[in-house]
Amino acid sequence: MKKNGKRFWMMLLGIALISVAVGCYRLSEFGVDAFTCMNLGISGFLGMSFGNWQLFVNIVILIVVFFTMRSGIGLGTIVNMVAVGYIADFICWIVWDQLAMTPGLLLRIIFLIIGTLFATLGVAFYIVVDMGIAPYDNVAPIIEKLTRGKLPFAKARVATDIICVIIGVGFCLIANDDLWKIVGIGTILNAFLTGPFIQFFRVHITEPLLNKD
Q: Quick one: DSSP state of residue 97?
């Protein structure tokens, strides 16, 4: 019972970190993470709110996950797919609309660093507790499973992230939106570092924390 309680709070902490990370990426204007890049590009093209479009995409991916890796679905999956987009929207609304802040270069760099660390640490938290992960975070493990380990998690995550960035950039260009608000050095760093960073945090932080008495 005690360990289940720890798993539950680690799951919530992971999702909270990811939510803050997505907001920080957007506030940095150095480019968002790969999945957010795709969803911002498409939602901008369609004229939908980011939160609504991300929820729709998560539902579509969740259907695929249900038929391929059902073990990846749980309470954490539902909380993540509903909460992250709207919390990120709320954070940006507070900073941009209510506080009317225009972050300077130093603050934007800080937002970028926080976004990168929080996003990968957050995923590492809720992956290890095995209470379900976000639909998109199931994609790399599914690829690893289908290729029987020939394409390991880290490389599969890099590949899917790059594809998401390409899609996001394409829709952003079609819609004539400001490309650099969703893709930039932050997007590139995220696409190549997310897989390795998640693996690092799993081995050195979240798994030891979960197994600690």
A: I
